[in-house]
């Protein structure tokens, strides 16, 4: 039979919406739980009122920018849309009883207790699922009186739902217990949903491998293009200025979503370092101590975008005090960057879980993006320990890579440390899912 | 949810606690409705506020955030504001409940005049538990004519009154009240520079030393040693180390830095990221050669750029820069910004740049979207 859309209540009860002329309910049983017998139908009759028009989420642009620096921050607000419904029963009283059922279920919907909406057009391979956060019903006054014993009521359900659809339980494995060297990068799959160029969310599980005795702290995660490192000015550097120059592959010339991150790896010494570009101090003064891998923040690439061909990057490293031993400087052209800084690092062999979409929740909940990303340690026998996330959890983009770097619990960086990396992603849709 | 996904983090500042432990407060990331911050010349990060709705239980739980360090990160993980939570307001069911550090005092002395007409000071009444929780906040009270015993008693009484942050509850009775389960929470924050006014000090030495070196020494001398020296431009100017009794660390620091540099160049200062004090030359002395930022309004949105053309994101804009605008003919610097106000809510964001109080410059840009 044809596919049917449906609501799924918090209790897991299905309320199917027939596409076409629904059978009439005779007052007994619960036929709405079966797609073939449900008395609720999507109203697609122009004579009796407006047809249902599935709405797509429209992005809200917060900051448009313009050439040559087109910055755009956009988000997808919740969608409010009307769903016209017809109710068919053998009698008017039975139709009212069905209307009451709908009211009871829909009016109880809230952000804390959402209802699922399964969008499954006829002919589609897969359904798309989203959440309804509020709903109200209004009855079409043309059908208040039962004419000619038709037992027909027409009403409109005004719903506020999540802007995006996804699948219900399937996730795509990105990495499955992959061994990740420290400060390494790994190919990410291209997104498969509607947000192909906007980034598809990722969940991670990161477990220290060869340094389980000391746990893990300060993890850097980024979705990026291939980073490049320079050993320019490597060695012991005392108070003074040192220019680090490198010819880069300028991936950001055509991809305005990319920013540039600069990190420096030190093997010894202690001091205060600040990085300058074009005579402007763009990083803070950062205290460096021992073997470490320090994030100096964004490198301004806007001017570089206006140059064609190979471009030379120049960063001036100011050692303001002390003496540090520089190993290399890494430039990461990134889309998304986050720093995860566990506040209780002395956990061993515990995977660090990072979630940007709903993970292992019950299968009745769609795997939609979380309002805010979550990170926590999941040690056996210990209550979940939440961990702060700073920045944006990496999303996968076309031809992108995942950059990962981590420090030990004592704050030191060891290039030979490895971690086991697992990651999953889920496609997001603005409406139709089709065969994806 | 904010239009721009900032990340908000709470940490402890009190002594004896881990440097960062924000596991014991509700996670407000993802539920904040509005965020604004301000930075100012001669202050640094000045103020910030965050508003969100929560359950009554979580709202009550948030009250324990008073005095916590509050740090804001932008979507790229870069710190863009830092300070402490100075007051918290809960609003639910017509009741406003505010708790604040404004009148807190946990180290109190009373200066009095003895029956013999001599000036004296009481014993110090001190609550170390409150100090460990919120930091040391001094109060020097004038006691008038008293005996030592009376002055000590006054100090002790004041301590009991003021050592716990006072709260204020106002009830607005309306004709129709609806019972709400949600609670509107507002966290009001001040920059850490403000905490330099919490403790007092004195120094009888009249020796001379460099002003910026003295300022750096003051940072480590204060009982609330939360601020460290960052980018400090040596003034080359010596001044007396004398500090009158009951002078706040902030007052002495400002007295020193107001003297400027040995060549007469005024200084600009403030506490910014990672609780570091910056002291640099004031950009307004020689505007033509000052660090300049250009305000480009010819594009779809006003964009602020450094001199090399790189963009400065609105929430990273700071005072003590010379700003110029594409609207002006020659593009030369026209004024120095003394105060920056940024706001972000669910619909968008706005930025306001004000001239310094050292000049009569009006607002260079005030745009609300």
Protein topology:
The complex is a heterodimer of chains A (436) and B (369).
Chain A: E1 5-8, E2 14-17, E3 40-42, E4 60-63, E5 73-75, E6 79-88, H1 92-106, E7 115-119, E8 128-139, E9 152-161, E10 172-181, E11 184-187, E12 200-208, E13 216-224, E14 228-230, E15 235-248, E16 259-277, E17 280-281, E18 286-289, E19 292-299, H2 302-305, E20 311-340, E21 352-357, E22 369-377, E23 385-386, E24 389-391, E25 395-396, E26 401-408, E27 418-425
Antiparallel strand pairs in A: 1-2, 1-7, 3-6, 4-5, 6-9, 7-8, 8-9, 10-27, 11-26, 12-21, 12-25, 12-27, 13-20, 13-26, 14-20, 15-20, 16-17, 16-18, 16-19, 16-20, 20-24, 21-22, 22-23
Chain B: E1 7-11, E2 32-40, E3 43-55, H1 56-62, E4 69-73, E5 79-92, E6 95-100, E7 107-113, E8 119-121, E9 125-126, H2 128-134, E10 138-145, H3 148-162, E11 167-171, E12 182-191, E13 200-203, E14 208-210, H4 211-221, E15 228-232, E16 238-240, E17 243-248, H5 249-257, E18 267-271, E19 276-281, E20 292-296, E21 303-306, E22 311-312, E23 322-325, E24 335-345, E25 349-355, E26 365-367
Parallel strand pairs in B: 3-18, 7-10, 15-19, 20-23
Antiparallel strand pairs in B: 1-4, 2-3, 2-24, 3-12, 4-5, 5-6, 5-12, 6-11, 7-8, 7-9, 13-17, 14-16, 18-19, 20-21, 21-22, 23-24, 24-25, 25-26
Helix pairs in contact in B: 4-5
Textual characterization of the structure:
The complex is a heterodimer of chains A (436) and B (369). Chain A has helices at 92-106, 302-305; strands spanning 5-8, 14-17, 40-42, 60-63, 73-75, 79-88, 115-119, 128-139, 152-161, 172-181, 184-187, 200-208, 216-224, 228-230, 235-248, 259-277, 280-281, 286-289, 292-299, 311-340, 352-357, 369-377, 385-386, 389-391, 395-396, 401-408, 418-425. With 436 residues, chain A is mainly beta. In chain A, strands 11, 13, 14, 15, 16, 17, 18, 19, 20, 24 and 26 form an 11-stranded antiparallel sheet that branches. In chain A, strands 2-1-7-8-9-6-3 form a 7-stranded antiparallel sheet, with helices on one face. The relative contact order of chain A is 0.19. Chain B contains 5 helices and 26 strands. In chain B, helix 4 (211-221) runs antiparallel to helix 5. Chain B is flat and about 70 Å long. Chain B starts with 6 loop residues before the first strand and ends with a strand. Mean pLDDT of chain B is 84; it is low at 15-22, 174-180 and 359-369. The A-B interface holds A 60, 62-67, 69, 71, 73, 75, 259, 274, 277-282, 284-285, 295, 297-298, 300-303, 306, 337-339, 341, 343-344, 370-374, 385-386, 388-392 and B 1, 3-5, 7, 9, 18, 20-23, 27, 29-31, 73-79, 230-231, 272-274, 276, 291, 299-301, 303, 305-311, 314, 348-349.
């Amino acid at each position: 039979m044809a596919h049917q859309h449906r609501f799924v209540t918090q209790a897991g009860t299905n309320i199917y919406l027939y596409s076409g002329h629904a059978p009439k309910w005779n007052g007994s049983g619960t036929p709405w739980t079966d797609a073939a017998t449900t008395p609720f139908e999507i109203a697609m009759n122009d004579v009796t009122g407006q047809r249902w028009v599935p709405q797509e989420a429209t992005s809200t642009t917060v900051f448009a920018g313009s050439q040559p620096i087109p910055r755009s921050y956009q988000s997808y607000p919740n969608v409010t849309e009307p769903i016209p419904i017809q109710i068919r029963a053998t009698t008017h009283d039975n139709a009212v009883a069905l209307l009451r059922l709908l009211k009871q279920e829909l009016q109880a919907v809230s952000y804390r207790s959402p209802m699922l909406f399964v969008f499954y057009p006829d002919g589609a391979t897969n359904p798309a699922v989203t959440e309804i956060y509020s709903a109200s019903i209004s009855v079409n006054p043309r059908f208040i009186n039962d004419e000619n014993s038709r037992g027909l009521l027409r009403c409109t359900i005004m719903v506020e739902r999540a802007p995006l659809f996804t699948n219900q339980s399937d996730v795509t494995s990105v990495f499955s217990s992959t061994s990740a060297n420290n400060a390494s990068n790994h190919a990410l799959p291209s997104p498969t949903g509607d947000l192909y160029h906007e980034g598809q969310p990722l969940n991670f599980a990161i477990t220290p491998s060869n340094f389980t005795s000391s746990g893990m702290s300060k993890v850097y995660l980024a979705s990026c293009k291939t980073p490049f490192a320079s050993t320019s000015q490597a060695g012991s550097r005392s108070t003074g200025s040192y220019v680090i120059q490198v010819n880069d592959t300028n991936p950001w010339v055509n991809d305005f979503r990319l920013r540039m991150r600069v990190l420096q790896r030190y093997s010894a010494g202690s001091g205060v370092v600040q990085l300058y570009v074009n005579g402007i101090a763009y990083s803070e003064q950062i205290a460096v101590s021992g073997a470490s891998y320090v994030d100096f923040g964004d490198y301004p690439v806007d001017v570089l975008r206006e140059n064609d061909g190979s471009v030379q990057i120049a960063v001036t490293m100011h050692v303001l005090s002390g003496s540090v031993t520089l190993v290399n400087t890494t430039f990461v052209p990134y889309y998304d960057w986050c720093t995860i800084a566990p506040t209780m690092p002395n956990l061993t062999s515990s995977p660090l879980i990072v979630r940007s979409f709903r993970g292992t929740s019950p299968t009745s909940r769609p795997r939609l993006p979380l309002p805010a990303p979550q990170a926590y340690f999941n040690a056996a026998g210990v209550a979940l320990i939440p961990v702060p996330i700073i920045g944006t959890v990496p999303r996968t983009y076309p031809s992108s890579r995942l950059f990962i770097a981590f420090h030990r619990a004592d704050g030191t960086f060891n290039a030979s440390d490895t971690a086991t990396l697992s990651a999953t992603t889920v496609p997001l849709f603005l409406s139709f899912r089709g065969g994806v | 949810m904010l239009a721009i996904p900032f990340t908000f983090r709470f940490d402890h500042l009190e002594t004896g606690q881990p440097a960062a432990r924000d596991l014991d407060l509700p996670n407000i990331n993802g539920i904040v409705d509005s965020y604004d911050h301000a930075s100012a010349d001669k202050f640094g990060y000045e103020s910030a506020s965050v508003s969100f709705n929560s359950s009554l239980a979580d709202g009550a739980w948030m009250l324990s955030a008073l005095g916590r360090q509050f740090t804001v990160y932008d979507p790229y993980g870069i710190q863009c504001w830092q300070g402490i939570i100075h007051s918290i307001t809960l609003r639910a069911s017509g009741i406003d409940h505010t708790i604040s550090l404004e009148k807190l005092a946990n180290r109190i002395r009373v200066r009095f005049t003895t029956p013999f007409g001599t000036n004296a000071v009481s014993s110090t009444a001190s609550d170390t538990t409150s100090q460990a929780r919120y930091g040391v906040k001094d109060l020097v009270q004038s006691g008038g004519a008293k005996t030592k015993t009376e002055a000590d008693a006054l100090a002790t009484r004041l301590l009991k009154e003021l050592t716990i942050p006072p709260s204020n509850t106002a009830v607005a009775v309306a004709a129709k009240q609806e019972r709400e389960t949600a609670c509107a929470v507002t966290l009001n924050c001040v920059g850490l520079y403000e905490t330099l006014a919490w403790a007092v000090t004195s120094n009888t030495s009249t020796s001379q030393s460099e002003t910026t070196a003295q300022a750096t020494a003051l940072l480590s001398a204060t009982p609330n040693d939360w601020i460290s020296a960052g980018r400090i431009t040596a003034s080359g100017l010596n001044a007396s180390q004398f500090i009158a009794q009951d002078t706040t660390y902030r007052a002495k620091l400002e007295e020193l830095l107001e003297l400027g540099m040995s060549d007469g160049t005024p200084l600009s200062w403030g506490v910014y990221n990672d609780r570091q004090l910056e002291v640099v030359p004031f950009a307004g002395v020689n505007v033509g050669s000052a660090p300049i930022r250009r305000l480009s309004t010819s594009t779809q949105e006003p964009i602020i750029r450094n001199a090399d053309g790189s963009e400065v994101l609105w929430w990273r804009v700071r005072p003590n820069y010379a700003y110029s605008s594409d609207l002006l003919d020659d593009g030369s610097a026209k004024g120095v910004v003394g105060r920056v106000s940024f706001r972000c809510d669910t619909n968008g964001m706005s930025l306001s740049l004000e001239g310094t109080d050292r000049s009569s410059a009006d607002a260079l840009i005030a745009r609300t979207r």
